[in-house]
Records
---
Amino acid sequence: MPFRYHRTVHFSDTDAAGVVFFARYLSIAHEGYEEALAASGVPLAQFFADTGVVIPIAKSEASYLRPLATGEKIIVELTPQTIDESRFAIEATIWKTEPAEKRAAHIRTEHVCIESATRRKIPIPPAIQKWIESAA
């Protein structure tokens, strides 16, 4: 089941035209990712500080479907999926909620799990794999 993160568009998210700046869509999707991990019980600060694992984003793509403005209520809907032993993807849909739910953007990020010291690929850590499986 996808994770849904409710949020308000902030003034700092927008550009001079008064709509969400394109790069902020990626930041908002990443906020949803962090919220989803925390909600599933992954202690973020401890996990990334103590395990020797880093999970950089190796690829991202975005489609912008509707503009979003300051004060609008949105939902970030996330669905993670395993790509292979060391990689996973997150499909994020940003929904504009009023007057009715309408897709505002679709973002896909691909993440690779690596050992921080050697930068070699490693299997997806059990806590992250559990999160991915729980969303299926």
Note: Residues 3-135 form a domain with the Thiol Ester Dehydrase; Chain A fold (CATH 3.10.129.10).
---
Amino acid sequence: MKKLIGLLILLITYIIAFLSGLLVTILLKDSLTLLIAVFIGNVIATIIVWLVGVLFQSASVYDPYWSVQTLLISLSLLIYYRNWNIGNIIYILCLSFWAIRLTINFLNNFSDISYIDWRYKLIKSKAGKFFQVVNLLGICLVPTIIVYLASLPFFLYIIENRQFEVANIFGLFIMLIGTMLELFSDLDMVKFKKRRHDNTEIIDIGLWKYSRHPNYLGEILFWYGVLLTYLFSSSFTFGKWYVLLGAILNNLLFLFISIPLAENNLKTYKPGFEEYKKKTRKLLPIKEQNRFSNRKEIGLASKILIY
């Protein structure tokens, strides 16, 4: 019952946030460019979600925003422009597959409205009385901005009424590969949790046998796929260089914040984590090259493969 009530609160929160953001966008679209109006509406929606999180003392109220933000904005743009061509339909289907997987993953971990992800608990312990400021800026607004920037290629694809081209298939394929990596990582994790004896054990099955973060790799690939689908359109010009920012910032977010945070936490309660770390790559799910006993001897190009 607690989970059901919690989900109902989340649903009402997100409906209010979406309608508020949509209203702000409509009010601003004639005085600002549409993308800027959408961005401001997106920020307003994020703040509403954050306020509900403050009310219930749970930063995880924001967690589903990752999966619904791009999908809802994209569907709104498609309805507004009526650009239901084959390219947009295929694009939105790939996006929906990603969004549904991410949402289901959240729901599997969600217990009730008081649920808080371990990362937020860690941040709260360090931020102290400034936590709600860190929550708004770091946990909510920064991800919102990065996901918005990463979504710009698709938004522009819709606004500019791009027609489907054979070259677009490559980007869509990368999106699907990324989502499948995340899905298989989730399934491996579910299987592992059923068989483990306690949480000190380290997952060593499926993709996790070769990669410490195959789910993060999938997320990184997905957004590069979104970008490539737009870049491979014949009418793309480098005057719109800003479409590159989102995928790159998302990549950096995982490499320098999410992954270090996760690994620093794992080694505090998993005794064998350092050994596991030596045997597996950070991201790419391929076997370690044993002949490289000293990574300092590897050239720059080879070092990249460590990930």
Note: The two ends are 43 Å apart (CA to CA).
